[in-house]
Amino acid sequence: MVTQAGPSRARPLWVVCALGVLAVSMIAALLDGAADISPWQVVLQVVDWLPFTHVDSGLAPVEQGLLFELRLPRVLVAAVVGGLLAMAGAGYQGVFRNPLADPYLLGAAAGAGLAATAAIVLLPSVAGSIPVAAFLGAVGGVFLAYTLGNTAGRAGGTATLVLAGVAVTSFLTAIQTFVQQFKVEELQRIYSWILGDVGGGWDQLWLVLPYAAVSAVLLLLHGRMLDVLSVGDEEATSLGLRAARVRLMVLLAASLATAAAVAVSGLIGFVGIVVPHVVRRIAGGSYRIVLPLSLIGGAAFLVLADLVARTVIAPAELPIGVVTMFVGAPFFVAVLRMTRRAAT
């Protein structure tokens, strides 16, 4: 169970440090590529892009186009998707009071992936069908996992929900594979999407931003309420909190964040486990700071993961989901061991 380990040690300094890490990560990602551009020129060009500023970076128009049309949208999409997945993970952990809750393991990502694949195959010409389908699939996946987990009662311990999520994820993935066969010519595109891809460009960024803004605001507004829920439903109710309503709102907001991320980037796992746990270790357990720091930390984490994916076997690329799995799988095992020790 996720509990609040005393008062948060967070200060505004943590947010400033997290933003600094994110800025450095984004600059490093902008520097990576075939064209050799100096870090100082990249910094000057980024400043020149800001409103009400004009700085001569010394870059040729071709180099400016390379940064603006290829590298920058990819970095921004990775940052938005990483922030959404990390915030969703923190939200799910708060709702279920389970440190192993994660969009990828709870069935949310698989549900969104199945629904989005069905939209690609069955509704290719319907504008906006993928995000809506992904949202409905994410909510459905979490509902199935939660319902299946509850059939075991409390005897299963904290791992019961995750085991149910794994079962639901496997089942939905099997259905997704079946649906793919109806669009064989799109298999390569769907396969790349399943393994994660943040290179969709500006169109993908504009697609995800409205959903990202709504879900992020909703989750941030519920940080204090999640802190109250962490002491238990009865205590929260005695303090005047409508626990069921809060859980529903956070669940919907986290599912919307997951769906938006999946719709533009495919299935990227373990971000929602790794980042919130690191944040809690550093800054304390209050969701008033866990949520915003997860947003910033998740953005930095996925930007760096994408940088690794682009460079480790250059000039070829690894799917970004493979990189997060290499990091997340051992981390998940470590969290599971700590959870089992804490329960005994």
UniProtKB/TrEMBL annotation:
<keyword id="KW-1133">Transmembrane helix</keyword>
<feature type="transmembrane region" description="Helical">
    <location>
        <begin position="12"/>
        <end position="31"/>
    </location>
</feature>
<dbReference type="GO" id="GO:0005886">
    <property type="term" value="C:plasma membrane"/>
</dbReference>
<feature type="transmembrane region" description="Helical">
    <location>
        <begin position="129"/>
        <end position="149"/>
    </location>
</feature>
<keyword id="KW-1003">Cell membrane</keyword>
<feature type="transmembrane region" description="Helical">
    <location>
        <begin position="320"/>
        <end position="339"/>
    </location>
</feature>
<dbReference type="InterPro" id="IPR000522">
    <property type="entry name" value="ABC_transptr_permease_BtuC"/>
</dbReference>
<dbReference type="GO" id="GO:0022857">
    <property type="term" value="F:transmembrane transporter activity"/>
</dbReference>
<feature type="transmembrane region" description="Helical">
    <location>
        <begin position="287"/>
        <end position="308"/>
    </location>
</feature>
<dbReference type="InterPro" id="IPR037294">
    <property type="entry name" value="ABC_BtuC-like"/>
</dbReference>
<feature type="transmembrane region" description="Helical">
    <location>
        <begin position="161"/>
        <end position="182"/>
    </location>
</feature>
<keyword id="KW-0472">Membrane</keyword>
<keyword id="KW-0813">Transport</keyword>
<feature type="transmembrane region" description="Helical">
    <location>
        <begin position="248"/>
        <end position="275"/>
    </location>
</feature>
<protein>
    <submittedName>
        <fullName>Iron complex transport system permease protein</fullName>
    </submittedName>
</protein>
<dbReference type="Pfam" id="PF01032">
    <property type="entry name" value="FecCD"/>
</dbReference>
<keyword id="KW-0812">Transmembrane</keyword>
<comment type="similarity">
    <text>Belongs to the binding-protein-dependent transport system permease family. FecCD subfamily.</text>
</comment>
<feature type="transmembrane region" description="Helical">
    <location>
        <begin position="75"/>
        <end position="92"/>
    </location>
</feature>
<feature type="transmembrane region" description="Helical">
    <location>
        <begin position="104"/>
        <end position="123"/>
    </location>
</feature>
